[in-house]
């Protein structure tokens, strides 16, 4: 029997060789044997999990040259493919695509040997990786986009973004387990995950910066309010002095009216005239006091409404930065996803 071997085989087959062979009357001998082959195959994981790999099996003789042993093979690729599909029972992670055969010449210590090379093309099943990794990461990115609608006041937005970022970090740990290590280039799935993580980290830093500006404006408002409270207290003291003086004046007028009534006996006409004049002065002073109180209340209402409607300088600046960043961030996310998926996902044949 010719000593045929497979060049890519890394482990020796432990299955016992078949002891049966068929000898025909023309002198030809037919021998069949099944083998379990563990071989090496160079895999390119750049488009993982949408990758298609091609592995080769090279059959050659160990000692005999091409003049001593002539190896024949089937050159019809369609027949090889159909026969392979017929005998293939199960397909797990990989789907069989095609099988081709060709011949080459190998020079081994100045001995030319014929090598028959069978190339098997396989396609990885990607549905499991899409459901368990790609779609969850995309959902986390959508949550981060939705967090742009949350108000920057308070810590709800910041805590939400940190939680989503930690979830993407856990997905990166899962990627480290499922991604094959035999690759010369950075896989697109790693670029996808790093890109999403980087954009979400940038969004988190922008939220921290905006909250810092708004907090700075809030501290300035607190200082201004303290000063305004002090001024309002002084105004209240002045107003209290004014009303006290008004009450003293009113009291003085009443006392004057009473003293005029109980003093020297004056004509009845003078008494009524002086009392009516004092009453008119008292009523005028009360009217002025009421009008001043109404004006004071209106001024307080107008000042409070202006303070509520008009935000501070840093708050206005933070809102402008947040709007500009949100617009640029949304556009960047869609451009990044469109570019990477156009390169990543293979075009249908």
TrEMBL record:
Every Neurotransmitter-gated ion-channel transmembrane domain range: 134-341
Membrane-protein topology: Multi-pass membrane protein
Chief site of localization: membrane
Transmembrane segment boundaries: 127-150, 189-213, 324-345
Residue ranges of every copy of the Neurotransmitter-gated ion-channel ligand-binding domain listed in the record: 2-125
InterPro entries: Neur_chan_lig-bd, Neur_chan_lig-bd_sf, Neur_channel, Neuro-gated_channel_TM_sf, Neuro_actylchol_rec, Neurotrans-gated_channel_TM
Keyword terms, alphabetized: Membrane, Transmembrane, Transmembrane helix
Subcellular location field: Membrane
Cellular component, GO, one term: membrane
GO molecular function per UniProt: extracellular ligand-gated monoatomic ion channel activity; transmembrane signaling receptor activity
PANTHER family to which the protein is assigned, alphabetical: NEUROTRANSMITTER GATED ION CHANNEL
Protein name: Uncharacterized protein
Organism per entry: Acanthochromis polyacanthus
């Amino acid at each position: 029997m010719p000593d045929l071997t497979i060049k890519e085989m890394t482990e020796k087959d432990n299955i016992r060789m078949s002891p049966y062979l068929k000898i025909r009357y023309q002198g030809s001998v037919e021998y069949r044997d099944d083998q379990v082959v563990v071989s090496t195959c160079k895999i390119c994981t750049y488009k993982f999990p949408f990758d298609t790999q091609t592995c080769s099996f090279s059959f050659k003789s160990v000692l005999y040259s091409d003049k001593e042993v002539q190896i024949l093979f089937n050159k019809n690729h369609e027949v090889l493919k159909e026969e392979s599909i017929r005998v293939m029972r199960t397909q797990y992670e990989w789907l069989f695509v095609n099988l081709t055969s060709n011949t080459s010449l190998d020079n081994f210590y100045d001995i030319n040997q014929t090598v028959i090379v069978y190339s098997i093309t396989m396609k990885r099943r990607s549905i499991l990786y899409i459901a368990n990794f790609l779609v969850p990461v995309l959902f986390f990115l959508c949550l981060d986009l939705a967090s742009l609608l949350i108000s920057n006041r308070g810590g709800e937005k910041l805590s939400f973004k940190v939680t989503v970022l930690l979830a993407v970090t856990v997905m990166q740990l899962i990627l480290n387990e499922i991604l094959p290590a035999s690759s010369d280039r950075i896989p697109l799935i790693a670029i996808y995950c790093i890109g999403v993580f980087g954009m979400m980290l940038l969004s988190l830093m922008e939220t921290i910066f905006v909250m810092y500006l708004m907090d700075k404006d809030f501290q300035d408002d607190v200082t201004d309010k303290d000063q305004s409270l002090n001024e309002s207290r002084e105004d209240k003291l002045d107003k209290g002095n004014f009303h006290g003086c008004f009450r003293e004046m009113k009291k003085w007028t009443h006392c004057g009216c009473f003293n005029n009534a109980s003093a020297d006996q004056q004509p009845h006409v003078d008494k009524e005239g002086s009392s009516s004049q004092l009453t008119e002065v008292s009523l005028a002073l009360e009217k002025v006091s009421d009008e001043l109180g109404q004006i004071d209340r209106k001024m307080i209402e107008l000042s409070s409404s202006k303070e509520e409607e008009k935000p501070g300088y840093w708050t206005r600046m933070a809102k402008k930065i947040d709007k500009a960043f949100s617009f640029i961030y949304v556009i960047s996310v869609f451009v990044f996803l469109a570019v990477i998926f156009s390169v990543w996902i293979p075009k249908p044949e």
